[in-house]
Amino acid sequence: MNQPYPRLPGFKYHRPASTREAVEFLEKHANQSRPYSGGTDCFVQIRDRKYLPEYLVDLKGVSQFHRLDFSKDEGLLIGAAVSMNAVIQDTYALTHYPVLVSSAKEVGGYQLRTRATVVGNLCNASPSGDTIGPCLVYNAEALITGPGGDRVVALKNFFEGPGKTCLEPAEIVTAVRLPVPTKGAQGVYKSLGRNKMGDLAIAAVTVLGYPEADTPSGYAFKITLSAVAPKVIFAEEAQALLSEREINRANIEEAAKLCAQASKPIDDIRSSAEYRMEMIRVLSRQGLVETCEKLGITR
Ligand SMILES: Cc1cc2nc3c(=O)[nH]c(=O)nc-3n(C[C@H](O)[C@H](O)[C@H](O)COP(=O)(O)OP(=O)(O)OC[C@H]3O[C@@H](n4cnc5c(N)ncnc54)[C@H](O)[C@@H]3O)c2cc1C
């Protein structure tokens, strides 16, 4: 590939030892500094001159950001510097959040995943970010700290568009928290790239289903669609259909069509919009069938 910018431009490196020091530095050097963790998006974007910060603020020096904890009350807390591989190898993550683990395994190759973080994947806010859909269906929250103090934002309100989040200047995400999933929840992450070697998804679907006494079908489903809109979206009409009607093959097929209709994809170098839409239908159907099998729904 012809690389127009083969080298990184110069920058100054800062490694704070505490959250407070990080925030103060980012505030002092507003518009000239950028926080990063794994750097696997950040350095590519700097190389491509998408932004040119004077200072790069390495968050890995903050010990609190390496926390990866699970509790039955709070759920899973993934600190800002926790790598994809750490999440993949975590027994609690695998037991309680298998759909997140399966999506983390889709990110790049093994070496990349030793650096790339879940929080970096969220903050990069790419509509094809692999761990975004699973974090959304598990009702994740972003824990944010900045000059104005701490705040917690439901992840469904965190994304504003491609590469855009609700973060204010000098704010950082310290961790993402996933509450304990509803009892009996089962799900899958289905993604399609141009190859099997860790390409970014050209379309992806996350499905999470669980028994729900209050719906006519006896179940509730959460379905997200990736890489087919400016941000990862919920397929709300398909979710509603699967709550209201009996879960059977015909209604799953109908729900998969609603997922395709909810997509608003674009043509780009990786896929045509038409192909993305068709793949959303196929991946949604596969994801729903597999989830229903796991839930023991046999109709
Ligand atoms: C070869 C290659 C293959 C890849 N394959 C995939 C793939 O298959 N799927 C996929 O989803 N992604 C892929 N990526 C993209 C990237 O690896 C992931 O998005 C990764 O999870 C980013 O994490 P990071 O810690 O490296 O982010 P960083 O590069 O450190 O940061 C990403 C962005 O978030 C901001 N940021 C980081 N941490 C914080 C924080 N705590 N608070 C506020 N802002 C923050 C940074 O300023 C930057 O804008 C690939 C990248 C490469 C280079």
How would you portray this structure in words?
With 299 residues, this protein is an alpha+beta fold. Helix content is 33%, strand content 23%. It contains 11 helices and 14 strands. The strands form 4 sheets. Strands 4-5-10-6-7 form a 5-stranded antiparallel beta sheet. A hairpin with a 6-residue loop joins strand 13 (219-226) and strand 14 (233-234). The longest helix is centred in the C-terminal third of the chain and has 23 residues, at 273-295. The protein is globular, with a radius of gyration of 20 Å. The mean pLDDT is 95. Residues 34-42, 44, 59, 80, 106-108, 112, 115-117, 119-121, 123-124, 129-130, 167, 172-173, 198, 200 line the site of flavin-adenine dinucleotide (FAD).
Which molecules are bound in this entry?
A: flavin-adenine dinucleotide
Overall 3D form: globular
How much helix is in the residues?
A: 25-40%
- What average pLDDT do the residues reach? 95
Unreliable spans are: none
Q: Summarize the main sheet.
A: 5 strands, antiparallel
Which radius of gyration do the C-alpha atoms yield? Answer: 20 Å
Number of helices: 11
Series of H and E elements: EHEHEEEHHHHHHEEEEEEEEEHHH
Q: Strand order, main sheet: write it out.
A: 4-5-10-6-7
Structural class: alpha+beta
> Which band does the percent of strand residues land in?
15-25%
| Number of E-state strands | 14
Q: What distance lies between the first and last C-alpha atoms, to the nearest angstrom?
A: 50 Å
